[in-house]
Design brief:
The structure is a single chain. Helix 1 runs antiparallel to helix 2. It contains 21 helices and two strands. The chain is mainly α. The chain has a two-stranded antiparallel sheet.
Length: 424
């Protein structure tokens, strides 16, 4: 157990110190767990959740095709026609980014919507910092809304055995989708106050510009993926990899269609490059590492610590999980954190003989939203800051947190209260 714990702590430290080599670190750690005999090869292979890997692969690839088709840019253009001034343009783009992010990776969402905010800012001769930071925060907020919204949601859904429709209604109660939407309403009110002075009207040329969509088929496939995942929710005794197969199959269809349309292998290479292989390898390694921790008894001991600190009180335990997740996710990648904590939550629930649902939802909410507090807390934030830097804007920590602290606090607290009221 001590060996496994030390190896895990070294792994986590290296993940923080060497962010560019996260996949190598995770796979090397998994290899050491296997070679040391902490976990057997067969168990290690079974520990990898291939449903999660396939779902991420399929959604990443399909989203890349949708972005290339320029459909999101067109939707943003149509949205801007309806808003009167800069304040509502920022809010509308943020809410729009959130809606997309409920079904698309957060980083991809920022890459889709940020260029629109940059265009508006250039035409108004104003800084795009505020709008792009808000877009990134809204994208992270909606990551917990659906099964495919974020890697953390996919991880939790697969661990618990939740389907796409379970994120809307679960055991006869409203689920994460509606909780996130109510949090988004609270987020919107905060934005209305933060940007109350941005009353400049939008220039007519911004409203008149219309992006031309090059291909509608990827968008049809993306909508089809959502409906197929919902349909799969109602299939009794479905295969464990059904959701993964759906996502990968639709991505493959999109690739073939793109190749037939362009008659060039360049589109295949370009799209496949957009699949984040580093994240897929990172997750594969982490699945084995967490399985090794479980096998060594470390996860059980961590569960005991949480139970001891809470005094067997569910509210204290729930609060601990939410706010510890918020703090951790503000500074470290939430993917390894959630991958580690899911079996811990399962162990806690087993010790106390309680329904773990409220703890799972608390973990997902805290870990997903907590990343918004700092510029390094989520990949979407890092992407947004990178886009701004590339365009000549350096974002100061105070400038970022002036937006992130009020919007994130109100979102986290709203979700925290709602999950407790509904699920306690």
């Amino acid at each position: 157990m001590i060996f496994a714990l030390i190896l895990f702590l070294i792994t986590y430290a290296l993940l923080l110190i060497l962010p560019k080599y996260r996949a190598v670190v995770a796979l090397a750690s998994a290899f050491i767990f296997i070679v040391s005999g902490t976990i057997q090869v067969g168990e290690a292979f079974r520990a990898i959740d291939f449903n999660v890997i396939l779902m991420l692969t399929g959604t990443m690839g399909l989203v890349a095709l949708v972005i290339e088709s320029k459909m999101p840019a067109l939707l943003a253009d149509l949205l801007l026609v309806k808003v009167p001034n800069v304040k509502w343009a920022i809010i509308a783009l943020a809410v729009f980014a959130g809606i997309i992010s409920a079904f698309v990776d957060n980083v991809a969402t920022v890459l889709m919507v940020a260029p629109v905010a940059l265009t508006i800012a250039k035409k108004l001769k104003m800084s795009p910092v505020t709008s792009i930071i808000t877009i990134a925060i809204a994208s992270n907020l909606q990551g917990a809304a659906t099964l495919v919204g974020d890697a953390t949601a996919i991880l939790m859904g697969s661990h618990v055995g939740m389907t796409f429709s379970d994120f809307f209604f679960y055991d006869g109660k409203i689920s994460m989708f509606w909780i996130v939407q109510i949090s988004t309403v609270a987020f919107t009110f905060v934005c209305m106050w933060l940007f109350r002075k941005d009353s400049n009207p939008l220039p007519e040329e911004v409203k008149q510009n219309r992006t031309v969509v090059t291909d509608y088929f990827p968008s049809i496939l993306l909508v089809g993926m959502i409906f197929l995942l919902i349909g799969a929710s109602f299939i009794e005794g479905k295969h464990d990899l059904t959701n993964g197969f759906i996502c990968v199959a639709l991505f493959a269809i999109g690739l073939v269609a793109a190749f037939l349309r362009e008659r060039s292998k360049d589109v295949l290479i370009r799209t496949i490059k957009e699949v984040d292989v580093v994240t897929l390898l990172l997750l594969s390694g982490l699945f084995i590492v967490v399985a090794g921790l479980t096998e060594a008894g470390v996860v059980n001991e961590i569960s005991k610590i949480f139970v001891k600190f809470s005094g067997d009180n569910l509210f204290v335990l729930y609060s601990l999980i939410v706010w510890v997740s918020v703090v951790f996710s503000a500074f470290v990648d939430n993917i390894p954190y959630v991958a580690t904590m899911l079996p811990v939550v399962t162990g806690i629930a087993a010790m106390l003989n309680i329904d773990p649902t409220i703890l799972y939802f608390g973990l997902l909410s805290g870990a997903t939203l907590g990343g918004n507090f700092t510029p390094i807390g989520a990949s979407a934030n890092i992407t947004a800051i990178g886009i701004l830097r590339k365009n000549g804007y350096e974002v100061k920590l105070g400038e970022y947190m002036k937006i992130s602290i009020p919007t994130t606090l109100v979102s986290v607290v709203t979700g925290y209260v709602l999950i407790w009221v509904i699920w306690s």
